[in-house]
Amino acid sequence: MECERVFLSLGSNLGNRQAFLSAAIAELRKIPDLTVLGISSMYESPAMFMTDDTPPFLNAAVEIRTEMEPQALLDRLQEIEVRLGRQPGPRIRYENRVMDIDIMVWGERKIATPRLTIPHPGIHVRRFYLQPLSNLAPDLIPPGFEWTVSERAEQLADRQPLRQICPGNTRQSRKEGHTDNRSIAHARQVRDERGKTP
Question: What is the pTM of this model?
Answer without folding.
Answer: 0.81
